[in-house]
Every structure is written in C-alpha cells, then in structure tokens.
Amino acid sequence: MSGETLLCARNLSVQFGGVKAVSDVSFDVQRGEVFTLIGPNGAGKTTVFNLISRIYTPTAGEILFEGRALSGVAPHQVAALGIARTFQNIELFEHATVLQNLLIGRHRHLDHPLWKELLFTPSVRASERATREKVEQVIDFLDLQHYRDTMVAGLAYGVRKVVELARALCTEPKLLLLDEPSSGLNVEETGDMAFWIQDIRDDLGITVLMVEHDMSLVSRVSDRVLAMSQGQVLALGTPAEVQAHPGVIEAYLGSAGDLSSLRRKPAIEEAA
C-alpha cells in the first residue's frame, strides 16, 4: 500500500422510503490495497457499491475519488474516471464472443470523431491495433485463450465470471469493484480467483474494493476489512481482527443467548 487515499467515503447514508439501507458509513481505501466489505445479507454492502457507481445518490454524506467528489458525476461517466465494476449477477452480452465482450470494455478509450471512424484513418487504425493488443494482454493474463472466439452463452458459469472480470480489466481501471467474485464458484475456481485478485493488485497495480461472503477468500487476499450490519459499520481492521470482533460474531451467528437455544439439551431434560 502507498498510504495514499484513492477513495474516501464520509458519513454515507441512503434511505429508500422509511428504510435506511446505509447509515453514516465512513471508510478510506488506500491506493494499492485490497479492501473488502463483509456482512450478512441485507447489511448494505452492495448498496455502497451502487453509491460509488452512481446508480444511487446518497441521502447524506459524500464520496471522493482521487480527491474529486462523485456527486456531480453521471453513472455513464464513472468508468472514464478509472472505476470499473463486476456484478453479483453476471452482466455480459451472451450472444457475442468473449473477444467481442472484452473489446466493448475498451470503449472508454476510443475518442475519435465519427468522420475518422467512417474513413478508418491511420490514427483510427493505430488505435484499433492498440485496443486489440490490450485485450489480448488481458486474455493472456486470465488464461482465456481457449475461449477467445466462443459465444458467452455457451460458457460455463465459472468461465463467465472470469470473462466479466476480464472486461472490467480492459477499461484499465485505477479502482476495481468486485461484487462477490466467488459467488457460484467451486473450491478450485475460488482458489484461481484469489490468485488473480492478488495479481491484479501486485502485477497490474490496481486497487481492489470487494464485497465477499467467502471468509477464506477474504482472509487470503484482503489487506483490510470493513464489517457491516443493518447498514452500519461494525468493525474495521485486518481480516483476523474483524473476524474476532464480538459484534461481527454476533451479526453472523447471533448472541450467546441465541446460540444456547440451538444446543442439544441433556437426555434427562428431554425425557422430562
């Protein structure tokens, strides 16, 4: 980690009708780290992602990216700032090939006027070559060579997850938002995902902000973890510190009183 703040969330709150999905949440993401949001279902983790992506607008608080407030940024402009995202429910063009999906991820880097595109000028041709080279680098990085020309609709779920990750990388982000990257993956695929997340940080220099339920993956790749429950912050620290926090244990497992009701009663008591 560089010690430089890349993303800063301050006193974030968002309310839908009478429901507060996020309440007074604050955290900083340092450049070069893997920062993970954890918590039970409904804790507000994906809502935080939607606030950063500008899908939602906070009721209160602010988000700064590289010192710039995101409040005035339209959702379609977020990628141009250097923020890319994957989704819990895969969002790919199913009737296009892997290569075509990844080329779409380069769209933000194409800024030629329409007349140059129509005439296919030398500068456009050079840009197309550079785009193809970048996409091929991502394909090699994630071992997708075998699937390059395969339609997404014919791919296994685990491969689709990697393709969506690849498309996000093709935007050349500074910050990568991963929404439950191990969801639906088997043990081997989750292990591969862990390696790739570490390589994305260490080899590509991309900062990662992740939402994840698999605590083995969280412990393996995360530098810091923020635990949430019912829209609020429970704990912030290293994976070990957060997992040992009493509030986090209670949020996941219930209180000692709740757990005592699950213990098997002595036989003599059951027979009474």
UniProtKB/TrEMBL annotation:
<dbReference type="Pfam" id="PF00005">
    <property type="entry name" value="ABC_tran"/>
</dbReference>
<dbReference type="InterPro" id="IPR003593">
    <property type="entry name" value="AAA+_ATPase"/>
</dbReference>
<dbReference type="Pfam" id="PF12399">
    <property type="entry name" value="BCA_ABC_TP_C"/>
</dbReference>
<keyword id="KW-0813">Transport</keyword>
<dbReference type="InterPro" id="IPR003439">
    <property type="entry name" value="ABC_transporter-like_ATP-bd"/>
</dbReference>
<keyword id="KW-0067">ATP-binding</keyword>
<dbReference type="InterPro" id="IPR051120">
    <property type="entry name" value="ABC_AA/LPS_Transport"/>
</dbReference>
<keyword id="KW-0472">Membrane</keyword>
<dbReference type="InterPro" id="IPR032823">
    <property type="entry name" value="BCA_ABC_TP_C"/>
</dbReference>
<dbReference type="InterPro" id="IPR027417">
    <property type="entry name" value="P-loop_NTPase"/>
</dbReference>
<keyword id="KW-1003">Cell membrane</keyword>
<keyword id="KW-0547">Nucleotide-binding</keyword>
<dbReference type="GO" id="GO:0016887">
    <property type="term" value="F:ATP hydrolysis activity"/>
</dbReference>
<feature type="domain" description="ABC transporter">
    <location>
        <begin position="7"/>
        <end position="255"/>
    </location>
</feature>
<dbReference type="GO" id="GO:0005886">
    <property type="term" value="C:plasma membrane"/>
</dbReference>
<protein>
    <submittedName>
        <fullName>Amino acid/amide ABC transporter ATP-binding protein 1 (HAAT family)</fullName>
    </submittedName>
</protein>
<dbReference type="GO" id="GO:0005524">
    <property type="term" value="F:ATP binding"/>
</dbReference>
